[in-house]
Design goal:
This protein is an all-alpha fold. It has one domain (3-146). The chain has helices at residues 3-32, 35-57, 73-92, 94-115, 130-146. Helix 1 (3-32) packs across helix 3 (73-92) and helix 2 crosses helix 3 (73-92). The longest helix is centred in the N-terminal third of the chain and has 30 residues, at 3-32. The radius of gyration is 18 Å and the shape is globular.
């Protein structure tokens, strides 16, 4: 396996583990406060963490200089993503929330790559990927029906 592929695969797996922990912790916070208060706490903690990293790395350049406004929409979408995760975790559980979210992410990213949205490298959807999409959708259906 290519060294970069192995490294990036490990990083992606670590990201998945951290997302599962984060979604669980965020859901517990929302349950003990409120959905909106938890959003403020979660995003303040994220801002403080990012600020500390920037200070430690001595990155003092203009933060917003040259960044297209559309790219900042990810932060706004992040607020609603966390809100929806918090709502779902406390009603259908972490596993089903993350499973369904993963199916949605893969479908959305496949569409974004197919059309080259937001400047991502354009990759046409191949028919070879369709069985994988169907298998994931079937897995989500099994979780919903028998979960």
């Amino acid at each position: 396996m290519n060294k970069n592929l192995a490294k990036n695969t490990a990083l992606a797996l670590m990201s998945g583990i951290m997302i599962a922990i984060m979604v669980t912790a965020n859901g517990m916070l929302a349950e003990s406060t409120s959905y909106w208060i938890s959003l403020i706490i979660i995003h303040f903690a994220g801002l403080a963490t990012a600020g500390i990293v920037l200070i430690v790395r001595k990155e003092t350049r203009d933060i917003f200089g040259g960044i297209h406004f559309v790219y900042m929409l990810g932060g706004a979408l992040g607020v609603f993503t966390i809100l929806l995760n918090n709502l779902c975790v406390n009603n259908i559980g972490v596993t089903m929330t993350l499973g369904l979210a993963l199916v949605g992410q893969i479908i959305a990213s496949g569409i974004a790559e197919h059309f080259g949205w937001l400047g991502v490298h354009r990759k046409k959807l191949s028919f070879g990927k369709i069985p994988a999409y169907l298998l994931m959708a079937a897995g989500a259906a099994v979780m919903i029906v028998w979960g």
